[in-house]
Design brief:
With 256 residues, the chain is mostly helical. Helix 1 packs antiparallel against helix 2 and helix 2 packs antiparallel against helix 3. The chain is rod-shaped. The N terminus is likely disordered.
Length: 256
């Protein structure tokens, strides 16, 4: 840019030196006119070059910001998915453990139940047979009649008792299962809500920090640009003044 500015000044200087621009009676006016033209050329060149530079730097900055935003989104997404998988796996593992415990207990009970009741039936039958044999043949008719009568009574009671017990057991089991499901569902809802709140809060904090950082970058960049422009303007001003001073000094020395 410095070469372009110097070339512009030289060109204007060459044009200004032609003809009778520096007549003895109008040298000051001609110098002022020359300076005005040269300064306009310099300012035009500086403005054009800075506009190109600004556009390029702004594109680079925007690309970096977009890249940062994309990376932040990806990091948050990965963290959310990882936590979701972890929580889901933990819950599934817990359920599997409980199911395995229930199935294990059921298997043990089912395996021991036949032996238990075979033994019970065997003992009971022996006791019953012993008692029946003691009564003798004389009491067989009365015993059979009593058994028959009581059989009907107790079968009725047995049916009623077992049915009531069965209904109560079914209700109790269903209530327990539903209570367990409700408790687990409440815990899952709470954990999910907490996780979502933490993820959203983390996102807000990250974006706030990024915006604060970008604001500082913007302020520093603008201040640096202003200083660079001011410094360059001062340099150009001094250079132009020196050039003008040199031409003025040469007026008296130029015999033409």
């Amino acid at each position: 840019m410095k070469k372009k500015v110097v070339a512009g000044v030289v060109t204007v200087g060459m044009v200004a030196s032609m003809g009778t621009a520096f007549a003895a009676t109008g040298a000051g006016v001609q110098v002022q006119n020359w300076y005005t033209t040269a300064s306009g050329v310099v300012k035009s060149i500086v403005s054009g070059n800075f506009a190109t530079y600004y556009a390029s730097e702004n594109d680079i900055h925007n690309n970096k910001v977009n890249s940062s935003i994309g990376q932040a989104r990806q990091d948050i997404r990965d963290a959310g998915n990882a936590e979701k998988s972890r929580a889901t796996d933990a819950v599934n593992a817990e359920v599997d453990a409980y199911i395995a415990q229930i199935q294990g207990a059921q298997a043990k009970i089912e395996a021991s139940m036949p032996r238990e009741y075979d033994a019970y039936v065997s003992v009971t039958n022996k006791e019953t047979n012993t008692e029946v044999n003691k009564t003798g043949a004389a009491n067989e008719t009365a015993l059979n009649s009593a058994i028959k009568n009581h059989q009907g009574v107790y079968i009725g009671r047995l049916n009623e008792g077992v049915a009531a017990t069965q209904d109560a057991a079914v209700n109790e089991l269903n209530e327990q299962i539903q209570a367990t499901k409700d408790a687990l569902s409440a815990l899952l809802a709470s954990e999910g809500e907490n996780a979502q709140g933490e993820i959203e809060e983390n996102l807000r904090n990250k974006l706030d920090a990024l915006q604060a950082k970008l604001a500082k970058v913007q302020t520093a960049g603008v201040n640096n640009a202003k200083k660079a422009i001011t410094d360059r303007g001062a340099e150009l001003e001094q250079a132009a003044k020196a050039e003008l001073d040199s031409i003025v000094q040469g007026i008296a020395m130029d015999p033409k």
